Amino acid sequence: MRLLCDTQIIIWAMTEDDRLRPATAELITDRGNDVFFSIVSLWEVAIKVRQGRIGVGVEALRERCEFMGMSPLNLEVAHLTAVSRMTDVLHNDPFDHLLIAQAVAERVPLLTSDSTVQRYPIDLIKA
Questions:
Q1: Which of 6, 69, 121, 123 is least surrounded, with the fewest CB atoms within 10 Å of its CB?
Q2: Do residues 41 and 6 touch, judged by C-beta distance below 8 A?
Q3: How many helices (H) and strands (E) does the chain have?
Q4: pLDDT digits over 31-77, tens only?
Q5: Whether 49 contacts 17, CB under 8 Å
Q6: pTM to 2 decimal places
Q7: Any idea where the domains of the chain sit in the sequence?
């Protein structure tokens, strides 16, 4: 199975946060799955680091993701095009919009615990 993790799931997996359900952790660590982290998530973390809202550095996050077997998903023009075609925008988080667009464009379910993102009509897995 191919999966795209949202930013919160990546942070929880990296920090072994108790909010990460065991079934979700198993999906991420199952070597039979192709699990992706988005460059968009690294960008979001970089901004949160700059704002003093998170203590996990971008490089450490990338290294940990790769150590856990995740592959990076770069931001492509097709993803931006998918953002421009979003019609049912339920909130104003540009990072979520990009992650949703990447999931749609790549035809991969988005693994998320975000209840707002879960309201979008996309292929997702509730974490």
A1: 121
A2: yes
A3: 6, 5
A4: 999 999 999 999 999 999 999 998 888 999 999 999 999 999 999 99
A5: no
A6: 0.91
A7: 2-126
